[in-house]
Specification:
By secondary structure, the chain is α/β, with parallel strands linked by helices. The chain has 2 domains: 31 residues, no CATH class; 179 residues, Rossmann fold, CATH 3.40.50.300. The chain is built from 10 helices and 7 strands. Strands 4-5-6-3-7 form a 5-stranded parallel beta sheet, sandwiched between helices. A two-stranded antiparallel sheet has the order 1-2. Strand 1 and strand 2 form a beta hairpin. Helix 3 runs parallel beside helix 4.
Length: 264
Amino acid sequence: MPKEKARKHNLSAVPDLAKDIPESEDLLDVSEVCNLCFGAGIQIVPGQGARPCECRMRDAQNRSIDRARLPKRYFKCHFHNYKPTNPSQERAFGFAMRLAMEYPAVEQGLLLMGPVGVGKTHLAVSILKGLTERGISCMFYEFGSLLKEIQGSYNTATQSSELRVLAPVFLADVLVLDELGASKPTEWVRDTMNHIINTRYNDRRVTVFTTNYLDERRTDREETLEDRVGTRLRSRLFEMCKTVSIAGDDFRKTFDRNRPVKQA
């Protein structure tokens, strides 16, 4: 092949057509266009007229979940797939469902306490999901992760500040604070816990807590929730929340039992 023709087929000489395509929010991905409204956002219902399309309501719910900072691991948690296995779990399910249905006409949040794997976080997330579907501002934080974000805000190289981290925690209508007491109870940790919880208490905002620590010791070496958060804060939680103890076996152990064994 002559050199001139070879140069015509050189890939480096092919223009990058993508650079010439204007960026626009109006350009739709055909594969993502709703088959009910075809991207218009309005669904025509025979005999009933027009209404906002289901896709817009679903997108709004997804944005609310994103703003709530819910980890992907819990995306599928909801009331409809929580399976109580004993009376304490049925009781906890009832309290959680009632809070989600009756909010904002509630006086207290919930403190869900019990050993690992009994569904505390599942129920807390179910409350969050139910409320965000109603357009209520919610926030989810694992307590240890929140402390790390606050500590990270003290680094001058970061673009965040303590106020910027804490503002959504203070202002959310309903806050789910998972794994309360899990972090080592240093003076700074307790001061931070008091700051967060007292602010929400004074603003009369509902908070849902989960914790693996109980109010009574089962062994001499076991710590209580009061040991982890302090007497003053535990007293405040009694007023802020309905304490609900959940018992049962660790459901995560069933994952291993139900997993097929690979042959060597």
